[in-house]
Prior knowledge:
single chain; alpha/beta; Rossmann fold; 6-stranded parallel sheet; 11 helices; about 15% strand; globular
Amino acid sequence: MRVCVGTTVHHPEDARITHRQIRALLDAGHEVTFVAPFTHCNVTPRPGIRAVDVPRAVGLRRGKALRAAASALRTAARDADLLLVHDIELLLALPRRRPPTVWDVHEDTIGALDAKTYLPGPVRSVLPPLIRAIESRAERRVHLILAEESYRARFPGAHPVVPDHTYVPPSPPPPPGDHRIVYVGHISLARGAAEMVEVARRLRPYGIRLDLIGPADAEVRPMLRDAQRAGLLDWFGYVPNNHALRMAEGALAGLSLLHDAPHRRPSTPTKVVEYMSRGVPVVTTPLQGAASLVGRVGCGTIVPFGEVGAVAGAVVRCVLRLREDAERRAAMGARGYVEALYHYHWPAVAGEFVALLERWAQAPDTVPALSPSRTVPA
């Protein structure tokens, strides 16, 4: 099977797209053409794929990227058995003549608008009905896969869920240490950037450092650079997911300090499962999905939402208690690792994901928007 995968929004090393889905397709012996912003992100395409470089869609400057992607998809569609796109914008750039097409829904587009601070207020207010119209049209014309069960509420039809699980090492990682905490993922104000800088400042006298591993929004980069120059933390910028998680191993705690927002409440942030997979105790704000998982497994601590100083204070107290109790943090890390290994290991999902695409590629006239509900087993 020849699959064309496309994105102009996501990083070419995006964990779900590249390290999970494309890897699963390659491991199954399929050919992959990957349309993505390689040059913009300074990424060398991995061996085994046919790479097509396009501009990245950033902020309000998306027209050039969309036109380039439309041209690339038209070319790729000529010999592809299936198109797999990851951006809602690319639904507007699909070639008229194309093979079976799949939209991987792994963002609540409307819910995420509030976090897009570059959008002027009037633009943000008119986008929801436009997004709903695009989603409704897509449901009639292409196949959908959903990253979370909670996304079902957005679509009247039934669509398979391919959960955003991670790779879990086959043997237990090293136990949590006592001198650093970590954050892995995109860094923004809505994801707790200000709180994490304050946590780093308060922990410095105790000899505990914060490692930030991930790209950051433009509005928080000066704050992070200042904190790094002051010796409060180490900010590594973008690191491919597999390397980032190895860097997280042995940390005292992993932070997930997302702010309260309706579209986030039912979700379990992938970073929570990733910390668990590496035996790192989790410190998370009480989003419903995250709090339920961490509380049930006993693999971390839940801190309340609140203003920056209050959240930072709660995190610091949790971290200091963990540092003083090596047995407790080791037990948390071990419980998280076992839970991730048995219930959140991507290879347990990968085969069914590939089989799903194979079935759709062989049935070009079928779009199962009204088919019986199906969830890829975890």
